[in-house]
Design brief:
It holds the Pfam family Peptidase_M55. It contains seven helices and twelve strands. The protein is of the alpha/beta class. It has a domain at 2-118 and 134-202: Dipeptide transport protein (Rossmann fold). Helix 2 (28-48) runs parallel beside helix 5 (188-202). The termini are far apart.
């Protein structure tokens, strides 16, 4: 069994503030150690279920948060950026399942460090007319490759978002949001045991493949700045329903990859901090 882990940081055990998750933050070094421990718990759970290959993609911010020497020896690591597929770099149809570790809720949700990919710059995203964030886009893109997302860890808001998007996902809440920068924290050992046990259970027996999607997907993104859509209109196939929204239609995962290009364009045009 081949397992793919996408590791974000905002939903990691014990982390609640930008100082915990940004390289210039005063508690970032502690945060990256906490991230490694959550990922390692997921790796242990996968190995216990019979995984013979585990690929971890560092999917947060600079994408070099996980120290290779801190990672479980059964896992390989994809580290650094830019990556053509961003948070899903390295995911392939040959994988049997995806596990999302440390994920957070979408922009506008009252969850810990909630946002959608780019802090304030992205206000809303819709996939096929349905509000979506990083969780839903990851699940839909993985499903288009024929790989199910079987487990997700994060705060309780992220877990609710995941199971509302796909009821088959096993979600593990490692903290309970009291606001965007505050949470009730689950004890570390308890949280890691829960992650490990949930991953093992989600992979036993081996998960079924999702149905093949036949129709193209429709992705819409509403930006804070009107300059972003005005520039993105230079990309063939991109339309603008209004001055701050862009729309494109196509097959996943190619549409997910194009969305990554949109974000790189937006980053070149704006200078918004991630959370505040």
């Amino acid at each position: 069994m081949r397992i793919y882990i996408s590791a974000d940081m905002e939903g990691v055990t014990g982390l609640v503030d930008r100082d915990d998750v940004q390289p210039d933050g005063r508690d970032y070094e502690r945060g990256r150690r906490m991230m490694a421990e959550d990922v390692n718990a997921a790796v242990r759970g996968a190995v216990a279920a019979g995984a013979v290959d585990v690929l971890v993609n560092d999917a947060h911010g600079p994408m070099r948060n996980l120290l290779p020497e801190a990672l479980h020896p059964a896992a390989r690591l994809v580290r650094g950026k830019p990556k053509q597929m961003g948070m899903l770099e390295g995911l392939a149809p040959e994988h049997d399942a995806v596990i999302c570790v440390g994920y957070h809720s979408r922009a506008g949700a009252l969850g810990v460090l909630s946002h959608s990919f780019m802090g304030h710059e992205i206000e809303d995203i819709w996939l096929d007319g349905r509000p979506v964030g990083e969780i839903g886009l990851a699940q839909a893109t993985a499903a288009a490759l024929g790989v199910p997302v079987v487990a997700l860890t994060g705060d309780d808001t992220a877990c609710t978002e995941a199971t509302e998007w796909d009821a088959s996902i096993t979600a593990v809440a490692v903290k309970y949001a009291h606001g965007r920068f505050a949470a009730e924290l689950r004890p570390e050992d308890d949280a890691r045991r829960a992650i490990e046990d949930a991953v093992t259970a989600a992979l036993t027996p081996a998960p079924a493949r999702p149905p093949v999607r036949e129709e193209p997907a429709v992705l819409e993104v509403r930006w804070q700045s009107a300059s972003v859509p005005a520039t993105l209109l230079g990309i063939p196939g991109v339309t603008a329903p209004d001055s701050r929204t862009v729309r494109a239609e196509g097959e996943l995962p190619l549409l997910y990859r194009q969305f990554g290009v949109w974000m790189r364009v937006a980053a070149s045009l704006t200078n918004q901090p991630p959370y505040c």
